[in-house]
Design a protein that fits this description.
Elements lengths: L1 E3 L10 E9 L7 E9 L10 E11 L2 E17 L4 E21 L3 E18 L2 E2 L5 E16 L2 E12 L9 H4 L8 E12 L7 E11 L10 E3 L14 E3 L1 E12 L5 E13 L9 E13 L2 E12 L10 E8 L2
Antiparallel strand pairs: 1-19, 2-3, 3-4, 4-5, 5-6, 6-7, 7-8, 7-9, 9-10, 10-11, 11-12, 12-15, 13-14, 15-16, 16-17, 17-18, 18-19
């Protein structure tokens, strides 16, 4: 479960969830994963939020076939002088992936993934669907992944290309009808991350950088745009707003100290992200933020306590000056 404080009135959230992993159900080294969650603190602002996912994979030789499906629903009530109106969003995502192990030694591992996926989003206000906001995003994606092991260092890298699949669309969305994005859009994305221990600190200090980037020559649908300003990209912000564009990058840095006590770490983080494109001058391009926290494990519970703050942002980009939160994960 996780909890965090936010700026807007009565938007404190207390989500909780659970997950079930089942291994080797068919004695073929297959994996089944089920998860579900939702708000356990209900009020007029976050009543009805829930999500779930299902994953299954089965290997055969150097190949692995997997399928994944997920849904989420968000509901918010707006109280007026004479009535109460509901705003609701429903999101679905489905994918099938075929993976191939290309090379594997004691020092490295290389794989290739081919994925076909489709996501849909529907929005409702007062019980009626907002048709102009309907979205769907079918695509295929090919990605090369490489992991290399050095002495006290691990480096992960990936590069991939994504293309739209118009024939998987049921109907043209309002975005497509208005010409706001290309139905044959192309995206190139890459990630590079590492974990490095240093002998001078007695293996107690770890530097964990991560660089992520996306490039595209086409107009992209809103679901495919590159976003910065969340806990999963540039930290330090409350998550209420983000910057998005067709192209961009972010660089995260974690400086981690292993404490003397068992399975406990103190960390500092400094992140920066930038959107690329001449059409973004009026919106702002750069976000940077900092975070510090304590994470570890106590018995069967993993915890993460953190506090973060923005370092730089556009003048019209609103975010709390200080954001605090924690997350708990219990396993048995």
């Amino acid at each position: 479960m996780a909890r965090r404080r936010r700026r807007q009135q009565s938007q404190r959230t207390l989500p909780a969830g659970g997950a079930l992993y089942l291994y080797d159900l068919t004695t073929l080294n297959d994996i089944l994963y089920l998860s579900g969650g939702g708000d356990i603190e209900f009020n007029q602002h976050n009543d009805g939020n829930h999500n779930g996912s299902l994953y299954y994979s089965i290997p055969f030789g150097y190949w692995t076939l997997s399928a994944y499906g997920a849904y989420s629903q968000y509901r918010q009530q707006f109280n007026g002088n004479w009535s109460t109106m509901d705003y609701k969003s429903k999101n679905r995502y489905y994918s099938a992936t075929l993976s191939r192990l290309l090379s594997h030694t004691r020092q490295q591992k290389t794989t290739a993934d081919l994925r076909i996926a489709k996501s849909t989003s529907h929005y409702y206000f007062g019980g009626s669907e907002l048709l102009v906001m309907r979205k769907q995003n079918p695509s295929w994606e090919f990605t090369l992944n490489h992991q290399h092991y050095f002495n006290k260092k691990i480096v992960d890298a990936s590069i991939g290309i994504q293309r739209s699949l118009p024939w998987l669309s049921s109907t043209a969305t309002p975005e497509e009808q208005a010409g706001l994005y290309s139905p044959l859009s192309r995206i190139v994305h890459g990630n590079l991350q590492a974990m490095m221990k240093f002998d001078a600190t007695g293996d107690k200090f770890i530097w964990a950088p991560r660089l992520s980037a996306q490039f595209s020559p086409d107009k992209l649908a809103s679901d495919n745009k590159f976003n910065i300003g969340s806990r999963w990209s540039v930290r330090g912000f409350d998550g209420e707003n983000s910057l998005s564009g067709n192209q961009g990058w972010y660089w995260r840095n974690d400086f981690i100290w292993d404490l003397a006590t068992h399975e406990r770490q103190f960390y500092l983080g400094a992140d920066i992200g930038r959107l690329i494109g001449a059409d973004l001058y009026q919106k702002g391009k750069v976000l940077s933020g900092a975070v510090s926290g304590l994470r570890g494990q106590l018995w069967s519970t993993q915890y993460d306590l953190f506090i973060s703050t923005p370092l730089s942002k556009p003048d019209k980009f609103h975010s709390d000056a200080l954001n605090m939160g924690f997350s708990l994960q219990w396993r048995y």
